Amino acid sequence: MADSDDWRVTITMTGQAQAGRPKRPSSLRELEEGIRRQVGRSIAVGANETQLFLYADTEAAARDAERIARGVLAQHGIAAESVLHRWHPIEERWETTDVAMPQTEAERQAEHQRLEDAETAESLATGIAQWRVRVELGSHRQAVALARKLQNEGRVVVRRWRFLVVGANDGDEARELAEQITREAPADATVIAEEGGVGWVFMPS
């Protein structure tokens, strides 16, 4: 299957399209499978209780899949609304097609900064670090020493024997922190920056 992460059609089912007794599927799963057969293997299909999602690698493929899916729904007398989104990899979110992709380095930097600002705002609003740095050290003593150093710098650190988890507000902060720890930790330490809210690592306001 082609990489289908670039374009997404969201189809929201809004009710019955026409009066009478249309041939309706017995379940959403049946409807989803019917659309999957029609659009072919190059389109990824997903669903929740009221929506269908079609993922494609090009705008043309996405629009074609949208047309086919809406036709299947119409055959079952189901009214629906649809919208096409494109994935913005720098800002890491879906945007409608009227939002242009960044073309210049300045535009790419601006989009990246919006992502970092959003992550920081989420961290501070929820008290949950949106990023973290995981550190595995060679001994318990090394873990204690590094944890104390980071805590003295104002970092919130969770220590479990030879392991540390340090919260970061956003991706840039996490990567910079990982580089710092790599320089300061013993050579055999494993340092990984990763995304994901950590419910038990709280960031200072």
Which strands sit side by side, in order, in the main sheet? 2-3-1-4-5
Number of helices: 5
CATH class of the largest domain: Alpha Beta
Number of domains: 2
CATH-derived architecture of the largest domain: 2-Layer Sandwich
Gross geometry: elongated
| Amount of beta strand | 25-35%
Low-confidence stretches: 17-24, 198-205
Separation of the first and last Cα atoms:
45 Å
Overall pLDDT level: 81
- CATH superfamily of the largest domain, by name, is Ribosomal protein S10
User: What oligomeric assembly is this protein in?
Assistant: single chain
The CATH topology of the largest domain turns out to be Alpha-Beta Plaits
- The total strand number stands at 9
Report on this model:
The chain has 205 residues and is of the alpha+beta class. It folds into two domains: 7-96, 2-Layer Sandwich (Alpha-Beta Plaits); 128-197, Alpha-Beta Plaits. 38% of the residues lie in helices and 30% in strands. It is built from five helices and nine strands, in the order E-H-E-E-H-E-E-H-E-H-E-E-H-E. A five-stranded antiparallel sheet has the order 2-3-1-4-5, covered by helices on one side. Strands 7-8-6-9 form a four-stranded antiparallel sheet. A hairpin with a 2-residue loop joins strand 7 (157-160) and strand 8 (163-168). The longest helix is centred in the middle third of the chain and has 22 residues, at 105-126. It starts with 6 loop residues before the first strand and ends in a 7-residue tail after the last strand. Mean pLDDT is 81; it is low at 17-24 and 198-205.
Which key terms come to mind for this protein?
205 residues, alpha+beta, Alpha-Beta Plaits, 5 helices, 30% strand, disordered C terminus
